[in-house]
Amino acid sequence: MTADAGATHAALTRTGGPAEPAALRRLAVDTLDANWEHDHTVPSRTLYPHQWSWDSAFIAIGLAQVHPERAWRELASLFRAQWADGRVPHIVFNPALRVGAYFPGPEMWRSADAQGTPTVDTSGLVQPPVHALAALLAYQRVPGAAGLAALRQLYPALVAQQRYLADRRDVAGDGLVCIVHPWESGLDNSPAWDAPMAAVPAEGAVMRAYRRHDTAHADAAHRPTDLDYARYLAIVAAYREHGYGDGDLADDHPFLVECPLFNAAFGSAEHALAEIAALLGHDPGPHRARAARITEALVRRLYDPATGTFQPRDLRAGRLIGARTVLGLTPLVLPDLPTRQVDALVVEARSARFGVARHMERPLPTYDRTAPDFEPLRYWRGPSWLNIGWLVRRGLLTHGHPELAAGLRHSMIGLVAGAGCHEYFHPDTGVGLGSPAFSWTAALVLDLLRE
After folding, report:
1. Marked catalytic residue, from 188, 246, 375, 447
2. Pick the CATH number of 3-449 from 2.60.40.10, 3.40.50.720, 3.30.2290.10, 1.50.10.10
3. Distance CA 396, CA 46 (A)
4. Catalytic residue list contains 30
5. Mean pLDDT estimate for the chain
6. Is the pLDDT of residue 55 over 90?
7. Which ranges carry the Mannosylglycerate hydrolase MGH1-like glycoside hydrolase domain (predicted)?
8. Phi and psi dihedrals of 381, rounded to 5?
9. Is 423 a catalytic residue?
10. Of 55, 368, 423, 447, which one is the catalytic site residue?
11. Where do the structural domains in the chain lie, given as residue ranges?
């Protein structure tokens, strides 16, 4: 954090109340400036010193309003690490950092041993494809010839990203993308993954051979457990030993799940690509048709009429996962989501599980507040994250619920005003958790303040 960002953060902490928009904007810009790394933005200087995929997408949305040239460099640098098969890796490692600066690092992933990988070290996993939406919004925030040229350069890579997911990750052949690791969902240790993760063998020797870095920078009580990490690494090892190939996933890969958030982002990307195609003089029709098929498959495969929400489908167990997590609300981002599902999700969002207040003025938790295993301090098992609130708010606006969107916006700005640009927040007290200078929080609060 720069000196200016530190001073602003200290002032917010002293006042304990909402700051002026100008002060929040200054804090957000200072945070992004402090985390800029020559051609991309690190999520934080402590916990995450490399480039992360969906972080860069959210960051670009905020950067477009203060450093538009950096927004396009952010996305371009990420897509330079795209694999030949079209996948966009969830981590791009900075070769200037020492070995062991982050765990698991390049020595665990060994991406250079796989086929069609870039010259830079990366992971072999992906994250929700929010990049086409980010590119479209970055252009819409600052339209012009430079942005149009950047969109023209990015468009083929964005199409290849979607093609990889459609061709290589539709394991069940039902039109939906399958994630092969909880990290691909973005919600790493969500209760949604407890059941499929329990079936993953966990070797204690795996963890004894490595040392975690996250718990050196954040309270261990706020992070995934060592058992979680042993299973995470076991899944990585299984995927790596198959050369990160997707052809035989259905045979023996230990974790196969269709995630509502990932597939909502997959469909939203086609809607964004349709708009980008029209801007570039291409035919948007194929993108719109694919978007419609994704939404139809999402409703058919993942909507549970008994609970009125979307739930992940565990392909190994052949059933929906019953945990009521915020993943179930994210299909609201799809503009063609049928009215029946929209209405049901609004009821879910306003329930005691997520909204509590009439207009959603309280921060949105990542897990059912009424569940006995709700953990308001532990990573994705309860805390509030700005990127998820931002996505749900966008969905509420899309489907004609401005009053709920306004309440959610107020709560998100309030979190940053009270605690600064933290990685995540206690959903009831607003206390900042994780990294204290987190880039996508800064970027998205800039986007919220824009209005």
Report:
1. 188
2. 1.50.10.10
3. 34
4. no
5. 92
6. yes
7. 48-441
8. -105, 20
9. yes
10. 423
11. 3-449
